[in-house]
Specification:
repeat, seven-stranded antiparallel sheet, Jelly Rolls, mainly beta, NDNF_C, five-stranded mixed sheet, signal
Length: 559
């Protein structure tokens, strides 16, 4: 029997030839089964590529095998195998079949005969396991191969369907696919505050040599540390959120899902994933090896993982993760309200605690005014310890109460959602001097599609029967900023929070007839095919602004 076989297919050819020779000896049912099994192995076994990372998909309790043969010209070949589990622990083994060099040489030249195949079958007892590992850590096996050795890499997952990556290389001199870690790969916590944690880590040798293509990326979550980048991304997907492969740390923000927020500032890319177990933040900060994580919640334990990422190959290596608990925030003191003075309160949604404001009446009648700035807020008012009002705030809310002079009112505020909320509060005995201006029926801004050109947009909004000041502002935005701009809008902020260059105009108007209390404005000097965010502020006699709902309009591309 003669068969031609490339050297890198030797294990499969030998297996097939052995089964085929058995079938030629005696056409029994068992030999047919052996023959079919040989063909099955030939067509369904996999060759592991040298110098390339391979993704291996595993079905529960079904082993998967890869074969490889290392060099036929040299007596000894050094090689490394790196396996990165991307989810649950797996078991993987390296097995070696030591056949004679002459047998492999004859097979490579197509000179394999029946006697040779028989010798190969008898040598099956020479298969031995040289390495075995079970777990979910990144593990590397370093070996030295002889010319006459065939190798098999076997994977098994006993918990559930999963995937892993494997990297085989015989090139130990020209560099590495994975960035190198320092001798001490630990992350050090050098500062802890109420809402911040400062971290530092030693530089990767790869980052020092290739600053343009090697970056550090940090992952922050409240669950546990991750041993690899693909394990972190898999966990985010299992949290019930769709996430494109290697999204955050491969720097592909244009693939963001609706549950994600991207922030790019000071050469740092931050992606916040909204998952069922809280937020998972991913921050890429270039080659800086010290970073202060901001906007954390007080008295909360966070887990921090640093990955050094090769931007050219998307390969990464994980530092040893750490954790830290932010400092506990002191109990807020009860703030005293003063007549006619408005205060804005920011509420922590995660703690779900009440924020307290106290007021001692100087008159029998008092009026509370609430303006919702962001999120959802509930207020609870007691008078001398007895509840007098409790409800959710929607937009603006006036509440008039009667009592006695020197009655003590306690206003308690609480966020109704997990994210932070904000509300503005004022109390006054002067009913004829309202805090907020008279409001129109709707705070929506309308744009006219037919009047839209390449360099101008026409908008309209409702006014009132009261002479008031209206200020218009515009802001150029990008497509990926729309969601963030609308979600982070603070309806209590006034024109003072805007940049001077964003101001379009301010004007006064009113109309006794509400049917005619409408005004329009054409904003010119815009760029073609560009998104703009327009805001209108209503400023009444008290000087307190009310912000209309933001409007986003795109100018025409061609005119």
């Amino acid at each position: 029997l003669k068969m031609s076989c490339p050297w890198f297919y030797l294990p499969l050819c030998l297996l097939t030839a052995a089964c085929l020779c058995h079938s030629l000896k005696a056409p029994t049912a068992s030999s047919q089964q052996s023959f079919q099994s040989g063909l099955f192995n030939f067509y369904h076994s996999l060759i592991l590529a040298d110098g390339k990372e391979t993704t291996v998909h595993l079905l529960k309790d079904i082993p998967k095998r890869y074969y490889f043969v290392l060099g036929e010209d040299r007596a000894l070949v050094p090689f490394t195998i790196t396996v990165t589990p991307c989810d649950v622990p797996i078991e993987w083994s390296v097995l070696v079949h030591r056949a004679s060099a002459s047998l492999l040489g004859k097979a490579a030249q197509g000179e394999l005969n029946t006697q040779d195949v028989s010798r190969f079958q008898k040598a099956t007892s020479m298969v031995s396991t040289i390495f075995n590992y079970k777990g979910n850590s990144v593990e590397t096996y370093v070996g030295m191969s002889s010319q006459s050795a065939l190798y098999m890499l076997e994977f098994l997952s006993t918990e559930r369907d999963t995937h892993t990556t494997v990297y085989l290389t015989t090139d130990t001199t020209s560099g590495h696919l994975y960035p190198e870690l320092p001798l001490d790969p630990r992350i050090d916590v050098i500062g802890i505050g109420h809402t911040t944690v400062t971290l530092t880590w030693k530089h990767s040798p790869s980052a020092l040599q290739h600053r343009e293509s090697i970056h550090y990326c940090l992952l922050v979550n409240e669950k546990h540390n991750y041993k690899s980048l693909c394990a972190a991304e898999t966990a985010i997907r299992f949290s019930g959120m769709k996430m494109p492969p290697a999204l955050a740390l491969s720097l592909s923000p244009y693939l963001l899902e609706p549950q994600q927020v991207m922030v790019l500032s000071n050469s740092e890319l931050s992606i916040i994933n909204k998952v069922s177990s809280g937020e998972v933040r991913q921050i890429c900060m270039g080659t800086k090896n010290t970073y202060t994580v901001p906007n954390l919640s007080p008295s909360t334990q966070y887990y921090f993982d640093v990955f050094v990422v090769n931007l050219l190959t998307n390969a990464s290596a994980a530092y040893t993760g750490t954790f830290a608990r932010t400092l506990e925030e002191p109990e807020p003191k009860v703030m005293k309200l003063k007549d006619g003075k408005a205060v804005q309160v920011v509420l922590d949604g995660k703690k779900q605690k009440f924020y307290s404001l106290q007021y001692q009446a100087r008159h029998k009648k008092v009026q509370f005014a609430f303006q919702l700035c962001r999120g959802q807020v509930q207020f609870h008012i007691t008078k001398n310890g007895k509840t007098v009002a409790s409800e959710n705030i929607l937009g603006l809310r006036y509440l008039s109460l009667k009592g006695k002079v020197l009655d003590t009112y306690l206003v308690q505020l609480r966020s109704k959602e997990e994210s932070n909320s904000s509300v503005k509060v004022q109390v006054s005995p002067h009913f004829h001097k309202p805090l907020f201006p008279l409001l129109p029926e709707s705070l929506k801004i309308k744009s006219f599609s037919k009047l839209r050109t390449c360099n101008s947009v026409t908008i309209a909004w409702l006014g009132t029967q009261e002479q008031s000041k209206y200020c218009v502002y515009k802001k150029r935005i990008e497509e990926d900023q729309v969601w963030m701009e609308l979600q982070n809008t603070d309806t209590c902020s006034g024109p003072e929070s805007r940049h001077k260059s964003e101001k379009v105009l301010c004007k006064y108007f009113y109309d006794i007839n509400l049917q005619r209390a409408v005004t329009t404005e054409t904003i010119k000097g815009l760029d073609a095919g560009t998104l703009y965010l327009f805001d209108v502020y209503l400023i009444g006699p008290s000087g307190i602004p009310v912000r209309y709902h933001s409007k986003i309009v795109r100018t025409r591309k061609k005119c």
